[in-house]
Amino acid sequence: MSTTASTRTVGVDIQESEANRSVVEAIEATNDGCTVQHMPGLVRITAPGRLVVTRESVEERLGREWETHEFQLAIVSYFGHIKEWDDDEIVIAWDH
Amino acid sequence: MTIAPKAPRKLTMKQRYEALTRDLDWEPSYVDRSDVFPHTEFEGIKIHDWSKWEDPFRLTVDSYTKYQAEKDKRLYAVLDGFAQSQGHLSLTEASYLNAMKLFLQGVTPLEYQAHRNFAYLARHLDGPGPRFAALCQSIDEMRHTQTEIHTLSNYNKYYGGFHNYLEQHDRVWYLSVPKSFFDDALSAGPFEFLIAIGFSFEYLLTNLLFVPFMSGASFNGDLPTMTFGFSAQSDESRHMTLGLEAIKFLLEQDEANVPIVQAWIDKWFWRGYRVTALVAQMLDYMLPRKVMSWKEAFELYFEEQMLGGLFQDLAFYGIRPPMHVDDAIAEKEILSHQVYWTLYQFSHAAAFTTTVPDADAQKWLSENYTETFDQLYKPLWDKEAKNIEAGGRHFARGLPQLCQVCQVPMLFTEPGDPTTLCQRESVYNGEKFQTCSDGCQWIFEREPEKYVQAWLPVHQIYQGNCGGPTVPDVLTWYGIQDGDGGEYKGSVDDRNWQKWHDAADHSNIGSEG
Fold it and tell me: What is the ipTM, given to two decimal places?
């Protein structure tokens, strides 16, 4: 069942809350082909190969400044590897 | 909430991380480096360049404390609201709290032990990046210990089983399963600990441990537990990252590290998996309102995400899936049933209660375990229902043989044969030792000199070290009081629950015995 890093599923679980709705919407809008699943208290977003959260798209929906560190308050779990986490974006993908 | 800084940032996240975390390190000039960091060579791991360690979170002290404080504020707001509104009465049933008793007795003390060992790593790892990540995790684990105790202390006012969890963790038979697991990791070297806890536990198995408890809380009206769970899990995602960074770092530093790391994965997957046996029965039997079956959770969080995702990634380094993983997969249909059936018969000596699953619960079990429940386990409950009708709910009167490694009673069955108990015997220095499975036997025979020292609760009772020779003597030594354990139906918790929900006058709630 060998798969490649570019297609293998990655995902993130986010706490379902009022404040996180904008984050979830931003991720949906940024990642084509992602799947959003609602679980008890959680929203699970999965995508083939790569999942990106951008500051710009969250701020657009939130209507205020948002620093990517704030994502720590939303994230419950993830699978994949955090490849990048800087001022502008967070990228979850596999390495190999 | 105003979290985003008002003033424009002078440094980017990367620069701040470099300046405030990495740059605070210095090269010792008065003493040898090996005298400053004396513990990172004896395990045979070779590190050539500590600066290659990555921390994707790029944490600095100021950002760490800011967000952790915000997490705590949110949690304590929920705790206050729950306590002020008599939230405990909105649980599905008092029996739900058995899951939380098990959590407080079995898991919370491990958080404290994790705090201790990550503090040790924060001192003893050579690189400033991993030292700081370990320091943050050490403080996180202390926060988890405290928030779990605070959260569950609300229930201690009204329900049994919560009042002596710390002493019980050190003494009671089923709690020696999680305790001995963690003691095994604490007594390993720093790199093995990182693979044991940072990687195998936090990355491989954490979702199987935490998400079921938290989703169970969410489905059963336990808002505070759900909130502390998510609050803790948000740290957990950082811990998972540390675990994953640790393993990639070790594998990339030197090829000679690969076989050492592989053996640790083989060992710690099985050690951790055996601890999740307690989670399996909790999911399938202890929750009045079911969330998902153990089988489903195992398929999603382990088979799909770890075997289908992570291990594909690690194959690049020459790492294969853990040894004995096929036994774990094969057990998913039978594990929870075998464990709960055992706990059911021994709960007179536990700080939680058990009961026969009712008709609805059995229907759910039958639908979720189509290959095994009706065939193998329903007959046991049918037989017990007849016993109860005849006035004889039974408890096991003897003491079970425990596995020398995982310390679970010998309740597991032979691979492929769910009606034959599995028992493996090894001889070391002329003495016989029993293990529950090929996985545990392999672990024992790899390091017999370690596992022959195990503090096995049943052996200790027979040796006279647990308060005395009778069951009441041992229960007194465990600090187990009337109403903490045994049968749920008719228990103190059950009677109070009925009374509190039937009575118009609620002014005395919590003052009953």
Answer: 0.89
